Amino acid sequence: MSDISQSTIANLEKAGLGGILYKPEQKSYEERVASYWSLTAQLKPWAIIQPRTTKEVSKALQTLVNTTDCNFAIRSGGHMAWAGSNNIEAGITIDLGLLTTTTYNPETKIASIQPGSRWVDVYTELEKHGAMVAGGREGLVGVGGLLTGGGKTFYTCRYGFACDQVINYEVVLADGSVVEANRETNPDLFLVLKGGSNNFWHTFVDFTKNLALNPDDHILAMWTILPQTKDHFITMVLTNLDGVENSKSLQGFLTIPGGQGNMTTSTVAKKLVDFLVPSGKHDTWFTLTFKLDARIIKKAAEVFESLAEELKRQIPDGNFYISMVLQPLPRSFARHSVARGGNMFGIERLQDDCVLLVAAVEVETPEISSQVGFPTLKAAIAEIESYARSLNGDIGFLYLNYCDGSQNPFSTYGEENIKKMKEASAKYDPTGIFQARVPGGFKISKVE
Ligand SMILES: Cc1cc2nc3c(=O)[nH]c(=O)nc-3n(C[C@H](O)[C@H](O)[C@H](O)COP(=O)(O)OP(=O)(O)OC[C@H]3O[C@@H](n4cnc5c(N)ncnc54)[C@H](O)[C@@H]3O)c2cc1C
Question: How do beta strands 47-49 and 92-95 pair?
Answer without folding.
Answer: parallel
